[in-house]
Design goal:
Blueprint: E1 4-7, E2 10-12, E3 18-24, E4 34-39, E5 46-51, E6 57-59, E7 67-72, E8 77-82, E9 91-97, E10 102-103, E11 107-111
Parallel strand pairs: 2-11
Antiparallel strand pairs: 1-3, 3-8, 4-5, 4-9, 5-6, 7-8, 9-10, 9-11
Length: 113
């Protein structure tokens, strides 16, 4: 079972930036896609971004142009750089490994003035 541990959440003002990290266990990290999801209070969990093993990236329309997903295979870590944050980006952000079905515990991001 793959273990995923997120970090980097916090409180930020609108227009600010945060970088989330997701540290993964397992020996095949470099060969698999990784996702970020988020879940706002009272809403369903929604997909945010994906990076595949070739570092090809895709984004939800709501974050395209503001968020950047990246990975460091040596560190077995996937990142989510979030810029120009908006109030509606407030949510718990989760790292997800589709090949194993694993989820991290989540990290809270709060955008507030």
């Amino acid at each position: 079972q793959v273990q995923l541990v997120e970090s980097g959440g916090g409180l930020v003002q609108p227009g600010g930036s945060l970088r989330l990290s997701c540290a993964a266990s397992g020996s095949i990290f470099r060969s698999v896609s990784m996702d970020w999801y988020r879940q706002a209070s009272g809403k369903q969990r929604e997909w945010v971004a994906t990076i595949d093993s070739s570092t090809y990236t895709t984004y939800a329309a709501s974050v395209n142009g503001r968020f950047t997903i990246s990975r460091d295979n040596l560190q077995k870590t996937v990142y989510l750089q979030m810029d120009s944050l908006k109030l509606e980006d407030t949510a718990v952000y989760y790292c997800h490994a589709p090949y194993s079905g694993s989820w991290g515990q989540g990290t809270q991001v709060t955008v507030s003035a």
